Amino acid sequence: MTIPSEMKALLLTGDGYTRTPSGSALEAMEPYLERGTVAVPTPGPSQVLIKVSLASINPSDVAFIKGQYGQPRVKGRPAGFEGVGTVAATGDEPYAASLAGKRIAFATGLSNWGAWADYSIAEAAACIPLLDTVKDEDGAAMIVNPITAIAMFDIVKQEGEKAFIMTAGASQLCKLIAGLAREEGFRPIVTVRRDEQIPLLKEIGAAHVLNEKAPDFQATLREVIKAEQPRIFLDAVTGPLASTIFNAMPKRARWIIYGKLDAEATVIREPGQLIFQHKHIEGFWLSEWMRQFRDRRGPAILEAQKRFSDRRWSTDVTAVVPLDEAMAKVPAELAKPNGKVFIKP
Amino acid sequence: MTIPSEMKALLLTGDGYTRTPSGSALEAMEPYLERGTVAVPTPGPSQVLIKVSLASINPSDVAFIKGQYGQPRVKGRPAGFEGVGTVAATGDEPYAASLAGKRIAFATGLSNWGAWADYSIAEAAACIPLLDTVKDEDGAAMIVNPITAIAMFDIVKQEGEKAFIMTAGASQLCKLIAGLAREEGFRPIVTVRRDEQIPLLKEIGAAHVLNEKAPDFQATLREVIKAEQPRIFLDAVTGPLASTIFNAMPKRARWIIYGKLDAEATVIREPGQLIFQHKHIEGFWLSEWMRQFRDRRGPAILEAQKRFSDRRWSTDVTAVVPLDEAMAKVPAELAKPNGKVFIKP
Predict the structure, then answer these.
(1) HSE of B206 in the Cβ direction (CA atoms, 13 Å)?
(2) Which residues of A touch B288 (CB under 8 A)?
């Protein structure tokens, strides 16, 4: 494969973190990105260079380009946390070298060199060789949501209690988890922001769907927690809502933070609960999970590919936007509900 | 041993938790306790009845009687979390029965029936048969501070990093831990509130002593953390100080909360650190530690008794106050620095 010296990409215009956090919507691309040309990067020993076929846009990408994600931006580098493509060059380490020429799903959280570009760099450990039966759209959106869903539900299963809680219940990730949970007889308790979201989530597999804006939310929450005794809390939002939920949970509850959609302060309302009720607060990051639980990684990846191959899972596509048109078109496509927006180099 | 039907005790006048939290000093006994007569309690199957020889007063007792500790008060029950005495009656379970007639140190956190009384009830699992070489004053103050010190330092040793952080550095507990740490070449970083406390703590074994009130505290803290890379944070205070320290700590830091001296809100300043830096927030409670780490319990208890027997450790006694005089005399004795106040039935 001939590799050019230069390539097109959507490049970060900001460095580090923002000082003026804003909401989770992407009102426009210009403040954060520019379409530009950069040198095609060279993979390190444990990395691969990927010719990108398709890259997805996740809420974490929007947070990242705005400088309000947990990883710092590097000005002038491409954005984009995941995609699908073909390995065009590799580093010298054996596992990286073994990926040469393969079609892979990849994540760039560890390499910090994004997927919204003609070529991208990923750690070999963050690449998944794909079965031919997995479509590009499913491969490009397979890591951040589907594998995370399987990994998080794995934590729930390890803990053993049938009931567990999720915030941002209407997210793609929570819907995937709710579906997995129903298949195995688990009982998700999810929060949403609008009553219209309730019927679909119940249909998918949620045992209880609570509208966090409802006037009786706190009373209902306490009642449901008392009846279901959930121990695991998978939290995408932090802030006052998450504090309230964790505070109401029973002994030995684990608050597992994986997102920070709410910019408000996150308070531990009763630190005494950590002492006397053995509650814990921790985080979840897929890269860390994969590193720490190597024996669970393989089965999770296989499970996701099987589900996409036999169509139990499929990715709802809102739009596939050419990279050249992304600056103008992405915000409006992202504003549409219920599907994924892709960038095609 | 003949057991009377009634006994004298210092009884809680409040139920549950206070609605008006105040500081950690005990300005007077009357708002919280009264000297009274109650029936001598009967031990449950896993419990023992102890004829109390001597009971100690800890900061956690003061917080508890004021209704600002993590456990709820029960009006009309005796207060007092630890003491020394002789087992006067036991429940039917074998371990409880095996303690009959023995001189023991005991803790009442699990039984919730206090030690400031002629007789007290403790779970057998919270009783420690004493060597004859351990004095009553040392036995009555052996669990809450010395065994906790050994248990917490055990966590530091398990983690492996030589440096670790403690708030409330001038407390008896932190001094014990600093001494243990010095013996094994560990490097405690401690915070205090007054410059006068610095020389003594350095002498005892602290590698760094930071005055949290100093104008350059934050800069010094960052510098020391950068140089020492501490992973464990043993925290007695919570609130803004603890939030600042945890926020400045490196990847994989564990914030272990065992006290809540600061009534201000405890904020997780950057929840993203839990996600991407694998930081954790948890609690420490000796009762829980003993239950969870049964194999470490025996050696910790033996270690404490050896240290008191050969006088490497000894308890500084400020006063031994007869139970009949406690209502009037305890607050003034507690206000004196650097020693322990005991109640003698």
Answers:
(1) 25
(2) 276, 278
* Whole-number Å distance between alpha carbons of B188 and B209: 9
Is residue A341 within 8 A of residue A318, CB to CB? The reply is: yes
Q: Do B258 and A275 touch (CB under 8 A)?
A: yes
Chain B interface test: which of A66, A274, A287 (most B C-beta within 10 Å)? A274
Residue A338 has pLDDT above 80, yes or no: no
User: CA–CA distance from B90 to each of B38, B86, B142 (Å)?
Assistant: 19, 11, 22
B283 and A288: CB-CB below 8 Å? no
Q: Give the whole-angstrom CA distance, residue B36 versus residue B203.
A: 45
| d(C-alpha A219, C-alpha A276), whole Å | 24
User: For chain B, what is the radius of gyration of the CA atoms?
Assistant: 20
**pLDDT tens column, B69-126:** 878 899 999 999 999 999 999 999 999 999 999 999 999 988 889 999 999 999 998 8
Q: Find which of B281, B289, B290 to mutate to test the A interface (most A CBs within 10 Å of its CB).
A: B281
Q: Are A4 and A41 a contacting pair, CB within 8 Å?
A: no
Q: Which helix (H) or strand (E) holds B47?
A: strand B47-56
Instruction: Give the model confidence (pLDDT) of B321-338 as tens digits.
Output: 999 999 999 999 999 877
B270 interaction partners in chain A (CB closer than 8 Å): 70
